[in-house]
Write a structure and sequence with these properties.
246 residues; alpha/beta; Nucleotidyltransferase, domain 5; N-terminal domain of TfIIb; 2 domains; 7 helices; elongated
């Protein structure tokens, strides 16, 4: 196995705050932004961010109470700027946009745009009956989410309960580790894995460990495309494309 410099891959998950608001009832209510309590403070809506670098054992959880709100965001901003790729579960629609909005509110420059690897998008292509992280992790036999009381924990955290904060921190760290485990199992089936730095040439774009070997070609309407397969993880990718003469 050829030793290559591996890209920096960051696993990330966030936990957001409840929105406190005023309402006249619980049935058939249209909620207007004027009903939100403590505007604009309520717009700063992240409790914590969990981070883990591929190849390292340590999982870091940055929290607003341990690091301060801006300090928490500065920590994740730095990590995003260093990462070659960021792996999330539904992060393309949720985690990353939430973080970008918070950077804006704190008058921070945007971090280096991350190359995103969203496992939720990949899982949806595999025909499972459910695409939730907890279901997939158990189905793939890599673990399960940390149990918690649900809404009660979020309310307690909002009210400053130390035990609830510690529990949420464990929950967030567990999700980050679970995201990595699911990523490693899904790896050969992620058909659009980006070519990260250090994975050029015959290096597998998915795992970066194995080398690609030619398995023949296939034809499209306009091209003959070389089919490549990794001898380590089994992922398929495309090689040279030769235009078919008219």
């Amino acid at each position: 196995m050829t030793c290559r410099e591996q890209p920096k891959i960051l696993f990330l998950d966030i936990e957001t705050k409840l929105v406190e608001l005023y309402a006249f009832g619980i049935r058939d209510q249209f909620i207007d932004y004027k009903q939100i309590k403590d505007l604009p403070a309520s717009g700063r809506g992240i409790h914590m961010v969990g981070l883990k670098w591929a190849g390292e054992r340590k999982t870091t959880v940055l929290t607003e109470w341990d690091h301060g709100y801006r300090g928490m965001l500065e920590g994740v901003h730095e990590a995003l700027s260093q990462a070659d790729g960021v792996v999330t579960f539904n992060g393309a629609r949720f985690d990353i946009p939430k973080l970008q909005g918070q950077f804006l509110l704190e008058r921070m420059d945007p971090p280096t745009p991350p190359t995103q690897i969203d496992l939720y998008k990949s899982a949806r292509k595999l025909g499972f009956i459910c695409n939730k992280l907890d279901y997939l992790s158990q189905l793939l036999e890599v673990g399960r989410k940390v149990k918690h009381p649900g809404l009660e924990m979020w309310i307690a955290v909002l009210n400053g309960c130390p035990k609830a904060r510690a529990k949420m921190t464990r929950y967030c760290a567990g999700d980050v580790r679970l995201t990595e485990e699911v990523h490693d199992r899904l790896l050969p089936y992620i058909d659009n894995y980006p070519r990260l730095p250090g994975r050029q040439g015959d290096a597998c774009p998915n795992c970066g460990i194995g080398t690609l070997t030619s398995q023949g070609t296939k034809s499209t309407r306009y091209f003959v495309v070389q089919s490549l397969k990794c001898n380590h993880c089994g992922a398929w990718s495309q090689g040279t494309r030769t235009k078919i003469a008219a």
